[in-house]
Amino acid sequence: MKNVLEVNIEQAGYEQGHPCIFNISFQVRSGELLGIIGPNGAGKSTTIKTVLGLMKHVKANVFIGGISGKYAYIPEQPIFYEDLTLWEHLDLAAAAYEIDYEDFVVHAEELLTRFGMGQSRDLLPAGFSKGMKQKMMLMIGFLARPDIYIVDEPFVGLDPHATKDFLDLLEEERRRGAGVLMSTHVLDTAEKICDTFIMISNGRVVAQGTLGDIRRLAQQSEQASLFECFDVMI
Q1: Residue 72 near residue 219 (C-beta atoms within 8 A)
Q2: Phi, psi dihedral angles at 133 (to 5 degrees)
Q3: Nearest-5° angle of CA 32, CA 60, CA 29?
Q4: What is the pTM of this model?
Q5: Is 106 exposed, middle or buried (0-12, 13-18, 19+ CB in 10 A)?
Q6: For 33-42, 64-73, 138-147, 201-210, which range has the lowest pLDDT when averaged over its residues?
Q7: Tag placement on the chain: N or C end, fewer CB within 10 Å?
Q8: Per-residue pLDDT averaged across 87-96, rounded?
Q9: Helix ranges, 97-224 (H)
Q10: Left (φ > 0), alpha (ψ -120 to 50) or beta: where does 41 sit?
Q11: Helix orientation angle between 160-176 and 130-144, rounded to the nearest 10 degrees
Q12: Would you call 28 exposed, middle or buried from its count of C-beta atoms within 10 A (0-12, 13-18, 19+)?
C-alpha cells in the first residue's frame, strides 16, 4: 500500500549542537496505525514535533503523501481560543482546511452527537473539563478527513465511552485510507489497535515492526504482551 508519511530524522534537538533524538526513520502506509512507544523523556514528543516541522535544529526529511497531502494533528494538551465557542472552533478549523460550509455543518453536527457534545456547542471551552477539551481536539482533527493523523497521547482525560467513540472513528478513517501516527503510554490499548510499533529510548530506536517482530527482538514468547516486551527492552 502507498505510504502517506515518510520520516527520516538524522538528528533533532531544542538547542543548536545538542540533538536529543538520532536516526529515527519510519513510514506509515495508507490505512496503517503506527504506534510510537517509550518511557517519559525518550524522545516521542520530539519526534512528533520534528514531523510537524516545529523543531528548529534538525537534520530530517519528512514527506506527507496521500491524495490531498493534508494532515491533522491532535495534541496531548488541548489548545483553544478562550473567546471562541466550541462551534466557532470547529468553524475556524473548517475554514483553515478549506472545507465546503454545507459539508462542514453536516459533519460537525455528526461529531457533536457522536461525542455527546451537542449541548456544549455554543459554550466557551475554558469552562470545559479536561475530557471535554480533549473531545474538542478530536472533533477538530476528524473534521479534516486528512491523509494522515498525527496523534499525541489521545487517551488522556477520555472516559470509556469517548475512548470507544474515538477508536471507532479512527477505524472508519483507516478504512477510508487514512494513516495514523500515534504516541501513547497506554500499551494494552496500543497492542490491540496498532499494526506496527516504533519503540524509542534515550532518543534512539530500540525496536521496530509488528508485535511479532518486537517479541522476537525482546526474545519473548509468542504470547508475550507488549508491556512485557517493553519491560525487557527499556
Answers
A1: no
A2: -65, -40
A3: 10
A4: 0.94
A5: exposed
A6: 64-73
A7: N
A8: 97
A9: 101-114, 130-144, 160-176, 187-193, 211-217
A10: left
A11: 10
A12: buried
